[in-house]
Amino acid sequence: MMRKLIIILSSAFIIFMTVLFIYYLLKGDTSRWQVALGGVLVSALPLFLLRLKNNPFNIPIIISYFIFLFCSLFLGSISSFYLHYKWWDSTLHFFKAIYIGVVGIALYKRLIPENVRSGVSAAMLFLFVLSLAVFSSLIWEIYEFLGDLTFTHTMQRGGNTDTMYDLLCGCAGGLLIAIYSGARKQKV
Questions:
Q1: What are the Cα distances from residue 11, in Å, to 67, 97, 143?
Q2: What is the pLDDT, as a whole number, of residue 154?
Q3: Which secondary-structure segment (H or E) carries 135?
């Protein structure tokens, strides 16, 4: 089931982004064809999970990945939601931090043996999840900054205010999932 889902979602998104890439390339819309080309590449990433003996991610994580791609690449960049809806960017930063925290928890459960996990405190798990989510926000903001320096000049239209607001939303999402993971660990 998981294998089939990854193949279907990845293939559909690759085809969708390839069509957009060709369309915007022929139109001469540099910004949009670059986003669509990036979409082709990142939608192929889950196909590498098929090579793993034990895929550490469940179906909701895989589906959430493609929802995030659709919302950020197609709706956000290509359909200009980032420009027309000021809340769109910060909402995606909030969701991304929660998503990365959930991915971190999944990897933690898959890669750390049960006998070792039982000795990890709720506070340590809280710090791990929070750090991972906040770090992802930091990396994303560096990506936006470097993108504006080299290619697009449209990723940080709000300058420092946009960066700080995005980081705060990422921290809030990370804090939310970290509290949840710490509370669940404490119950166990």
A1: 14, 26, 26
A2: 58
A3: helix 122-150
